[in-house]
Structures
1.
Amino acid sequence: MLALRSTLFNVAFYANLILRMILLTPIYFLLPRKKAYAIPKAWARSNHWLMEKIVGTTFEIEGLENIPKTGCIFAPKHQSFWDTYALLPWMDDPVYILKRELTWIPLFGWYVKKQRMIPVDRGARGKVMVEVMQRTKAEMNNGRQLIIYPEGTRRQPGDEPHYRYGIARIYRDVQVPVVPIAMHPGLFWPRRSTMRYPGHFKIRILPAIQPGMDPDAFFEHLIEVLEKASDELLLEAAATNPALPLPPTAQKRIAELKQKTEV
């Protein structure tokens, strides 16, 4: 039954994406850029509804009051495709730095370009990266929020942290608050898997780290607060979802955390 519900959700998810892109494209491109963002945000909400009704997965968000009213950098944990779109309804005007190849996808790439997302060649260095940073600063000077995943790529829940220093350089150069976001959607929407699991989990938006810190000190602080919150939410998700099949990385981390509390 779980496999069937997962299949039904996956079919509904991609049908929802394709149909909305086709039917709403004329409206999307006629609207001003920021107003057009309402269409991707509505798509995100509809996916939450589909996942709740078909799979039985729900979530709640803590700390919405920690989102600054000005431009900022969101620094979420990255575990599955879910967290690439899930928070859009609660963000004002986000911008992503993304692989340039994504802009080549028909329809999707057009949507991305309309929102002035920042494409980058992952192997680029030097002048190209300077241009990327200039574009990033320009967008954030207009009050937009940059979404950047500090670990760079999707990681398994409970996996050992592997943060990349690039976020510290951006923090130093852009001079805006950084908002860490802890969550474990990978427990319910695993990467490289078609299975979707029912249950309930929390997203925790942590207090913003204000600009002005030494980049090295900022980097260490970001890792500390984000990993602490992630560990807390991992223990809570496992306790409140006893039937959830935990990946080996999560099982190992939970055992380590329980051992620490017993010492």
2.
Amino acid sequence: MSSNDPIETQPEETKNEHGHIKSFVRRAGRVTEGQQRALNNLWPTYGIAYEQKQLVLDAAFGRQAPCVLEIGFGMGGATAEIAAAAPETDYLALEIHPPGVGNLLKLIEEKSLNNIRIIQHDAVEVLRDMIPEGSLAGVHIYFPDPWHKKRHNKRRLIQSPFIANLVKYIKPGGYLHCATDWEDYAIQMLEVLSAEQQLQNTADGYAPRPEWRPLTKFEQRGIRLGHGVWDLLFTKK
């Protein structure tokens, strides 16, 4: 949490001690001074340490409210914007990279947000060990690593076993919202989500971008260049 050293990149085929292939690598990058200050000063308030113990969501946020899980928030800009626009909802945000965690903590302070909590750990293990089944009003997975080389496709997060497990934690009537700017990954996402019997598509194929998902700067640039973006919005039956 406190080092400014470059983040070590893991070998691509490494499995963790629990045996699942990780869908991410620890990319090289440095934590800025501002991000480090946020990590030092704000993590005790808005951060939640990973542990093999079920999390009491109402206690974590200090109130009773619908809770949405975000998996992989990057630098946190969209997360902060979404949370600011929906103060009645709590957001549990997962990210492994310290610069992103530090940046979201800065945004929490700048925007005076109290409806975000952060866990810096592998989402598969957080779900297994910390999230109560049937507790989530929704899940956001925006622009996960596409692992675009065919030999790396098996590392993609959106796979049938992961989704079959994930839906256990969503309340009936809750939603799963994914977005990607890689067409072949969008096709895979649609196939995987459509095949999950507990999920129902809200659209005929891909969905329009919901108003709650802001356009990222990267996404806006891609649209100007003619790149596609695909949203998928499913609800739990």
